[in-house]
Amino acid sequence: MGSWAGEELSVLNPLRALWLTLAAVFLLTLLLQLVPPGLLPSCALFQDLIRYGKTKRSGPPRPAACRAFDVPKRYFSHFYILSVLWNGFLLWLLTRAVFLGSPFPSWLHGLLRILGAAQFQGGELALSAFLVLVFLWLHSLRRLFECFYVSVFSNAVIHVVQYCFGLAYYVLLGLTVLSQVPMDGRDELANKIILISVVYMIGRNLLMQARWFHILGMMMFIWSSAHQYQCHVILGNLRKNKAGVVIHCNHRIPFGDWFEYVSSPNYLAELMIYISMAVTFGFFNLTWWLVVTYVFFSQALSAYFSHKFYKSKFVSYPKHRKAFLPFLF
User: Fold this and answer.
1) This prediction's pTM
2) In the structure, how many helices (H) and strands (E) does the chain have?
3) Contact 74, 179 (CB under 8 A)
4) What is the pLDDT of residues 250-300, one digit of tens each?
């Protein structure tokens, strides 16, 4: 782990530059929202692009031109359908590479090199990438299940730009994980993936290659996913009767689990899921920490808007609840 940490910190490849840019954009956007109203001019299009769902209703009046680009929020399921298919395909390719020694297709190898694939060796990193891609696929599969059987969508909308961004995000996310599989740029075998050898992978127990951070990351992933699922169940049940039948699409104050501390615990759990993946990478993977930084600021922005919505709609909203981070923000 330590052998490649120094090299990690010294290279800003296209993939890292992209995640760093996204993180900076959402940080700036969040800071602009924290500026007292009236100090800066308001742009209806900008507000429409950074809000979605219920928070669009609590924002400034939306011009008709903005409403022309509305997409139903229930189309969130498309993100997870794409992720299950695309990242499932990448997981299949990585599984063949890890367990059968099969190289990636030339088009994928070339794409990963353009994005900035890892130029160092290490069985731990290959196993980490495999586990993180498994986590990402399971996360997408669970969220797809929740979209169909847990969540109750109203007539809320998102902007078509947000919709397209969401589709591209899950494609890029899988490629980001795969780019962390060590590549060899030293000799004529540069087109091969440097993974743990087939004999080593098949002939020895896979658990022998696990490190403590793999176990910790897995435990954190399960813990965070369970809390996120429970939060979505709580939100869905607010619109159902005791028999589980949807009776309305209104908003109510949620209680229970992490809702006792923050207004958007599902966003907090999302952040924790990505942190669990950073832990699985061994704590020192700069590329994935840039992904986590982007997730932090994007989820904090959404949580901030949700918190404002709840406080403006419900006079009796719990005063002690924060927006995103318990006791802090």
Assistant:
1) 0.90
2) 13, 2
3) no
4) 999 999 999 999 999 999 999 999 999 999 999 989 999 999 999 999 999
Supply the DSSP symbol for 305.
Answer: H
Residue of 20, 2, 17 lying closest to 283 (CA atoms): 2
Q: How far apart are alpha carbons 24 and 81 in whole angstroms?
A: 28
Cα angle 11-295-127, degrees, rounded to a multiple of 5: 60
Which pLDDT belongs to residue 252?
94
Among residues 287, 280, 293, the alpha carbon closest in space to that of 8 is found at: 287
Q: What is the DSSP annotation of 140-201? A: HHHHHHHHHHT----S-EEEHHHHHHHHHHHHHHHHHHHTTS-B--SSGGGGSB--S-HHHH
| Residue found under tokens 């169940």 | 233
User: Residue 264 in contact with residue 303, Cβ under 8 Å?
Assistant: yes
d(CA 87, CA 105): 15
Amino acid residing at 277: M
Residue 150, C-beta contacts closer than 8 angstroms, at least 6 positions apart:
229, 232, 233, 236
